Structures are given as structure tokens and as C-alpha cells.
Amino acid sequence: MTPDSRRRTGRVLAAASVCALILIAPVRGFAADAAAPADSAAPPAHARANHDRGIEARITSLHDQLQITPDQEAQWAGIAQALRDSAAAARGANAGRRGGSRNAVETLRAQQAAAAARAEGLKTVLTAFEPFYASLPEAQQKRADTAFSHHRGPRTTTP
Fold first, then answer.
1. pTM to 2 decimals?
2. For residue 37, what is the enclosing H or E element?
3. C-alpha dihedral over 129, 130, 132, 134, to 10 degrees?
């Protein structure tokens, strides 16, 4: 398999993955277990507003980088909403890390719940993005490939 064909083989999945990760990257914590009190898990209003502004800035940046045309706006709106929904789900999964202490098992459960939320968000974004990407002219697909190739995914830290 040539390097060029390897690149083409995975570019749709890679583009959608990176697109989702771009929005989820700021969410680095883990989900709470279901027993956490609601008010200790809720992020402060300013944190939600900052997160929302960051998501909107990323969506606008992608829109500009991909040079979305007026004819593509309707499809792009669906992708933008999928990205917002995915980020909101990840933020919700992350919200519970703000309260109380956990033992090792509870921490692993919270990590599993957060990973499941991220995976479901990625699935939603991929479902919206894949047909859109396939409809793009080759030059625009290359812009998408370039825009998404610069992102390496969320950074993780170890305790």
C-alpha cells in the first residue's frame, strides 16, 4: 500500500475523530458516579459560558478553514450542532469531578463513563460529518485533511 493510498483510506475517520476531539479536548476530567449531589457536580456559570465560547470559536475556525460555501451551509449547520451536542455531553460527563473524593473503583467507573460519553459524541459527529466530507470537492477535502491533521487529540495528565 502506497503512502498516498494509506492517507486516503483513513482520512474520513481521522477528520471526524479530530473534529470531535477538537471540541472535547478542553474537557479533561471524568464523569461523576450517579450518587454525586447535583449542585456539587454543576460547573460554575462562568465555566459553562467560557466552554461554550470556546466551542463556538472552534466551529467558526473550522468553518473558515474549510471555506464553507453558501450552498453547504445547511449541511454544515447539522455538523456544527453535532459538535455542540458532543461537547455538551462530554462537559456533562466531566461535571461530576468537582465534588467529593472517590476510591479507586469509583474513579475507574467515572473514567469509563467519561470515555463512553466521548465515544458516543464521536459517533454522532462522524455520522454527521462523513456524508458531508464525501460531498466536498477534492480541494475542500484537502483543506479539511490539513485542518484536522494539526490536532493530536486531548492532552491527558497523570496524577
1. 0.63
2. none
3. 150
Q: By the 8 A CB rule, do 12 and 133 touch?
A: yes
Give CA–CA dist 7/75, Å, rounded. Answer: 25
- As a whole number of angstroms, the distance between CA 98 and CA 87 comes to 18
**Residue recorded with cell 461554550:** 52
Q: Give alpha helix (H) positions in 25-154.
A: 38-41, 45-66, 73-95, 104-135, 138-149
C-alpha cell at 101: 473524593
Over residues 44-66, the pLDDT tens digits come to 666 567 667 888 999 999 999 99
Residue 21's alpha-carbon distances to 45, 114, 127, 149, 150, in angstroms, are 23, 13, 15, 12, 12
Angle between the N-to-C axes of helices 73-95 and 45-66, in degrees from 0 to 180, rounded to the nearest 10: 150
Helix axes 73-95, 104-135, angle to 10 degrees: 180
Which cell goes with 156? 491527558
